[in-house]
Every structure is written in structure tokens, then in C-alpha cells.
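User: My collaborator sent over this chain with a note saying "see what the structure looks like." That's all I know about it. Can you take a look?
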Amino acid sequence: MPTPVDPVSVPACLSAALGRLSTGLTFAAALPELEDALDARGAAVVEAPPGTGKTTVVPPALAVRLADHGGGRVLVTQPRRVAVRAAWRRLRTAVLAAAADVLPDARARLADAAVGYAVRGDAAGGGASAVEFVTPGLLLRRLLADPGLDGVDAVVLDEVHERDLDTDVLSALLADLRQLRPELALVAMSATVDAAALAARWARGMGEDAPLPVVFTPAVLHPLREEHAPFRGHRLTAEGRVDRAFLDHVAATAARAHAEALDADPTVDALVFLPGVAEVEAVAGRVAALAPDTEVRVLHGRQEPADQDAALAGRADPAVPRVVVATAVAESSLTVPGVRLVIDSGLAREPRRDRGRGMAGLVTVQASRAAAGQRAGRAARLGPGTVVRCHTAAALGTAPAAPTPALAVVDLAPVALAFAAWGAPGGRGLTLPEDPPADAMAAAERTLASLGAVDADGRITPHGAVLAELPLDPPLGHALLRAAPWTGPRPAAEATAALALDLRAPGADLEALVASVRDGRHPEAGRWRREADRLERLARRHAHHSLETRAPGEPGPEATAAARRHPAGLVSALAFPAWIARRAGEAGAYLLASGTRAALPRDAAGGGLAGQEWLAVAEVARVAGDAAGTGAAIRATAPIDRTLAELAGAGLRRTEDTADWRGDRLTGRRVDRLGALVLAETPAPVAPDAAAQAVRAALAADGLARFDPSGRTERLRRRVHLLHRVLGAPWPDLSDAALPGLDALVDGLAADLAAGRSLARLDAEALLRGALPWPEAGRLDELAPERLPVPSGRAVVVDYPAVHEDTPPVVAAKLQEFFGARVTPAVADGREPVVLHLLSPAGRPLAVTADLPSFWAGPYAQVRAENRGRYPKHPWPEDPAAAEPTARTNRRAR
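Assistant: Without extra context I'll predict from the sequence alone. Here is the result:
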């Protein structure tokens, strides 16, 4: 009979393990300070560089502390699954060693009771261990399912500097929870972070004014030598991809630098950093060819756990040197044994979102200075080390200080869903590490509303509550549940797994991708199969809910048959209805329901996507290359037919009346649309709203000229706009930008055009007069007359300035017509002087003035002297202010 595990044995074993682990770890000396901080405030921020041992000693120390206070579990997050397992294995090894002295007959069961882990699809310890390492996403789902975190008395958020989305959300929700559970101990740990800012902001989230305590431990690194081996060219192509020649350079640099290091010390292993999996695999192959006597391992998040463990296990043969080629997973929280040499490509992959087009994806950028420091530090954790940077010092000097937080650049639908499930729609009352972009959060809430996950007030719906339980982004979770009744749970789960794991689709063809992983031909087939099995179980568990969320009367026989032909297409279309696409011309170009144009890659031309009329696009990204002239490339898609397009895009379906110009008249159409995609159109009477829209578009594009062939309306517009500029309200703004918003004018023009009138028959002047404010409109001719009387008795046309000009009106007349005038004419109740263009008897300009008295007293004498001999038949009195005005010659005047 197995020896039972005494609960008292667990903390004793953890305490013994802590003693073993603390040896040589700097942070062990800071544990009393952390204890004091938790005693005083119940929460703290730990700032400790890599290698100080914070991840190793803090979790068991908290567990021992809780045992002294009556028990409770410790949950510790790590942003990556490989780091979760590595931290668990390190603590478990120490526990097993300690258990030999505490409970030798039940070492394994004691270890499970002391430490466990849980990641997507894999776990140890049964969820009841005293210390459990988990991913942030898994803890977030647990927290939403159990908002009190019953049985948990301490949570450690590790590596918060990485600013992944789930950790940011957890920090806000846990701070909020602590206001209800003040006994819950919270610790945020980071290697590189503005600890003071985090401590202040996290405290505010907990409803406290004073910043939380910060426990700091300095870095303990051995001497680090820095070298540069820059590439003589561009590391990235014009399309934003990593240049193959640069990868050759990194591989050659790694092989050379490692060979030189081994000459000095045969125990040195190397760690090479690259931005993504494809680059890791490519460089690993090149290094293996250049250094055949070296063991070359890769380390990235897509590997099978056993392969990750092998990369972290150290040399298999002490005599065989190792090179580990890794992505950013090795930057922090992981220790790769034997590494004393780092070769850094200087590149990182970060998420970006094009909010205008609704596209998201990963882009390759210069690694931040913080990331570069983390990478270099890997070489000096075990002894004196060297970092070789494959770029110039200037490139690092101009790099950003830290990576861009995911919160600022990714789709926030998961964040908005978590907030709604927590009972804080939009994050009201919660404090994130930084405020998310308002437009991105608004877009996320619109997405959730379109999925039926939240109601009109942003509160969680039953469907949203189920989506919050799923380990999927909301659109994919929605697609899984909606598609399963039509395709069957397994096909829906297979397609969803391929999208959730972000597997690369050959030639962008998702159906081909699913076939390859199903047949085991894809390198990640095992990982995909585990995920598909898990999602199938979830789909079956929620089968009743899935049927309830189905639209009434669906699916019919035709829709069911189409869904079973194209399960990947249906899942993609349900998840991303705005990316349902229809062929638009040749060369693989498509128009998406969102209105964006995109193109298939060239290698899809001969595959199963060639010639498809309809596609369900799951990934699209902006590109600098041609992409059939669209500027966007389809990265993953599956064929659908019109039936599935209408089924999945039902929320985008609308019928609208439009009006188009045919010559000088409007003609109407009734258009059936799926977003920007036209399904059908028929002739129809011109609807008033459509006519108004056409008028506004014409005014915005062409101004008033299109509706004013005679120019009369423009003259009226200038007079009114001058009054708006000089007198203000209620005279309306009639600038080009304001015209489309002048509803009375727009509606009048639209009504006449909808009735069938041509532009030539419109009386736009009358319509504009009708749009003027009453009773002020009755004074228009007084305030801004078309003509002004001059002293000669003649009424002269006033030339009002164009609406975009801030100049006075102009009156042009012969100089003699102004004799006797002692004031300058003005309009707008005398507030806007008129500029006078004084002409010769022949109509040529003589002078310009806005001040007649000053002109008579000064410049007139010179004008008189120059022109009295030229025009002797016309009067040129010495005192024009006292002379009689006239438009006649001397003889005719008599």
C-alpha cells in the first residue's frame, strides 16, 4: 500500500528544497526584504536581473511562508510554456532530492504535491500542488471561471517586462481582486522594468495611494566582452523579410566565433538569437554544415516539449561542443547550460496592427536595447563571456529602449472579453500597466458585439461567457462553436487548431495545410493533433450551446453540404467575416468584405485556390511588394462558395439604395451587399437618402460648380460667406468643407434630382437662399449688396472674395465717379471696408485704396499730374473731395 503524503511533509520538503536552491543565488539574500514587504503591504514588485535566482527561490519561499500562516497554494506565471516546464523541473528536482530525507518511500507523490505545472494540453500535479507554474493565459481563464481564486493565497507574475497581453490583463484583474481578498499576496517580478512606475500604478489598481514596495537585487554577471560583426548590406529585404545573405552571415559568424572560443576554453557553448522559427531552422542547418563536429540544437515555442527539454539539458557528451539556435524564448527565465558565447542577429519579431485595414501580424524589427541586454547577459551568467552582435553599434544605439507592449499594437478583443467576463465592460474601474488605445478598445468591443459575446451595454452574454472559457481568441472560439453543428466537431476542431497554432499554410492554402497535418506530413503534426483533440472535446462539451447560437432555420441541406466540403473555409469565414473575399480581376486579386484589396501569393497560382471565386481569408498582411498591385498579401485562406459566404457573413449583409451620375442626371440602383462585396444589383427609383449621399459626394469632390453652370449661385455664396466671416452666426459657413453639411441645400438639390431633374434645370441659387437663416436672410441685400451706389449715381457690381480668401470685397469704377466722397464705402453693417479700384477714363487702373480721404489728401496729386494731360477732356480738379462726381467728359458734363 502506497505511503500517504503527510500534508506537513510538503512545506518541510519545500523548505529543504529552498535551502538547496538558494546556494549561490543572489536573490536568496533579498528574501527577508520581500517577506517584510508582504507583511507590510501584501504585495510587492521585484526587480532582479537574469541569473539572480528570483524565479527559482521566490515561489518555494512564498509556499513556506503560507504554510506558516495556515496554508494556501502559490501560482506562478511564466509567459512561455517552455519556461513553465523549466521552472517546474528545476524546483521538482530539488524537491525530489529533499524528499529523500523527508519521505523516501513516496518521493514522486510528495514532489507532485509540492510542485506542479499546467500549460495548454499538458499538466503535472493534478492542479493541487503547493506551487504550480502556469502560463498567463491559463491562469486568466481560471480566474474568470473562479473569480475568487479559492484555495490560492499567493500569485507571482514573473517576467512582467515582456508585457504580453495576458499578463497585463492579469495584473489588472488581480489588483481588483485584492480589494476583495486583502489576504491574497501578489508579487510582480521582472528583469528589466521601470519598477517604480509599476509599483505606483499597480497600487492604484488595488485602491491604494502609496506605491508598493520594490525589492531590488543588482545583477551579478561575470565580465562580458562585446564584439561587432556587422553585415555589409541590409538585414531585411524591401518586403520586410530577413535577407538570406544575412542568415548566411549570422551562421558564419557563429561558427567562427565558437571555434575561436573553443580554442581558448573547450567547455564554451554558444547561443544564437534570431527573430523567428524559419530563421532559426535555416541558421541551424548552416551552422551544422559549417561545424560538423558540433551538436546543433534549436529552441523555439513551436517545438515538441521533448525537443525543448533536450535543448535546455546541456551537452549530451561533455566532449562535444554545442550551439543552440533560438528565438526570443531564450532571452529570459530560461538558463541554457554551458553558454558563454552569444551571437545576436539584433532582430526581433513584434506584433503590429494596421487599424485602418484591420490587419494584424508580426513584423521584423531591430531588437530593443532591453532585449539586447537580456540576450548578451546569457553569455555572462556562468563565467566570463562574449557577445558578438551582427550589426553596428549605431543600430543598437538608435533602437527603442524596450519592446513595444502588445497592449498597444494587437487586437484587443481578448482583453475586452476578459473585462466583460469580469464585470468591468471596457475595463472601467481597472488599472492596466498602461492605458490601451481608445480606438483599438472600441474596435474590440464592436468585434465582441458582432460575435454576440456582449450586449448593447458591453455586458457579457451567455455566448460570451462560453467564449471566455475557451483557450482561443474570441473570433476563433466563436467560429469553432458555430461551425461544429454544420461540419461536425472534428473537422471544425482541425481547422480551428491550424489557425490557433498559426501553422504556415503552403501557398496560403488552409485546406492543404489541414490535409498535411492530418496525414502527418507537416513537421508540427503532433502539436496540431493534440490541439485538435482538445478543441474537439471542447466543441462536443459545448454542443448544446453551439446549436443554440446557430441562426434560426440553419443549416439547410445546401449549407450543410457546403460546410462539409469546406470546413476550413467555414471556420475562417465565421472567425473573420470581414475578410470574406471575392475575385476581383486577374492575377489572383480579391476584394475583401472590409473593402480592402489583397492578392494570393504567386505559389498559390497552380494549387487548389487557383480560379476560386470566393475565399475565406484567415490572415492578410500589408506588403511592400507588388501583390498584384493591391499592397496586401493573403497569407492563409480556404475556398468557400457563395452559400457559405452568405451564411458566415450574415452580419455584414445589407440592402442599400444607391444613386449614380449618368451625365447630368442621377439614376438609382438597389444593391444587395455583403460588406463591400456586391451580391446583386437592380435598377430602382432614386431614393432621397441615396440622392443626398450623391449630392454630398459631388459637393465634396467638385464644390458648388457642378450645380451652378451660370455662376449665379457662386456669387450668392460669396456674399453670404463674407457675412459669416465678418459677422459670424447665424450666417452659415459656406466653405468647400462645410457645403456637404448644409442639410437644407443638400436636401433641396437631392429632392430635385431624385424627381428626375437634370443639373441644367436646377435652381441652386433659390435652394441656397432657402437655406439661409430667417429673418436675417431678409437683410442680405442690405448687408452684402450685389451692387453699391457710387457718388456719380451709378450702381457698381461688388466683387466679393472667394470663400477660401480672407480679403475684402472690391468695387471698380472711374476715379471721377468718386469726386466729392469723404468716406470709403463699406458692407456688413459698415464693418468691412470695400477696396476701391480707381480707373482711368479709359478703364485702366490708376490706384487702389481702402481709404478715400487719405488718397485725396496724398496720392491723388501725383495721379492728377500724370493723367490730366493724357485725358484732357475729363475733369481733374485740385480738390476732388469738393468736386462734383461724374462719369462724363467736361463737355458732356456741361
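A starting point for your reply to your collaborator: The mean pLDDT is 89.
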